[in-house]
Amino acid sequence: MKLALFSHKPHSAIRRLVLGSFLAAAVLAGGGAAYAANGAGGTGSKPAPHQGQGKDAHRQHGPKDPARLIKRFDKNADGKLTVAELPEKAQKRLGKADTNKDGTLSAEELKAHAELRTKDRAAKQKARFAKKDKNGDGFLTSDEVGDKRWERVKAADANRDGKVSADELRAARPARKPPVAR
Q1: Using an 8 Å Cβ cutoff, are 83 and 95 in contact?
Q2: Is pTM beyond 0.70 here?
Q3: Can you tell me the distance from the alpha carbon of 62 to that of 65, in angstroms, rounded to the nearest whole number?
Q4: What is the pLDDT of residues 151-171, one digit of tens each?
């Protein structure tokens, strides 16, 4: 029995539907590939912001370019950034960066402040890890952190050995969201 693909028999309607579905899927898949290859909908000439870096990859701790920060907040455009020119929240955080107490924040002071905060953050993380690592072997296990916390921590166990090192935790930690500019 020979069946034509496009005949007027009832079962051919099902074949047309299946064939049409496959063709639609192929067109969509091709369009999706072109969309991805073209910079996620862009023109292809310029990549989308933070493309391929993960949703939070743009988060950077501290001013990576202090000159840019100074230029952004220098309200009177005198080339100097005073603590008073900063938003209120930033005044509290960056006011400590003025180490020579001249009332202005230099690029060097901002960079040194960012480095100090990074070192402090790393020291706090190391101390928290050491506190949880009750046997001091350099790994966290379910008996050290408890079952409830282990459910979250075990996702960092990259080599699936039932214990998590500080390096595994660091590698699994998602980047933080950027602060909202005000």
Answers
A1: yes
A2: no
A3: 9
A4: 888 888 888 898 999 888 888
Number of H helices, E strands in the chain: 7, 4
Contact 64, 115 (CB under 8 A): no
Integer CA distances (angstroms), 64 to 59, 107, 113, 181, in order: 11, 10, 11, 16
Which of 146, 167, 147, 143 lies closest to 157, judged by CA?
167
Question: Residue 77 corresponds to which tokens in the numbers above?
Answer: 């455009």
> What type of residue is 63?
P
The neighbouring-strand residues paired with 164 are 140
pLDDT above 70: residue 22 = no
Token readout for 58 is 């743009």
Q: Which residues contact 71 (CB under 8 A, 6 or more apart)?
A: none
Which residues neighbour 37 within 8 Å (Cβ) at sequence distance 6 or greater? 44
pLDDT for 62-101, tens place per residue? Answer: 446 888 888 889 888 888 899 889 998 888 888 889 889 8
Mean residue pLDDT across the chain: 75
Length of the chain: 182
Q: 104-115, pLDDT tens digit by residue?
A: 898 899 999 999
User: Helical H runs in the chain?
Assistant: 10-37, 66-73, 88-94, 107-132, 142-145, 147-153, 166-172
Residue pointed to by tokens 């949880």: 132
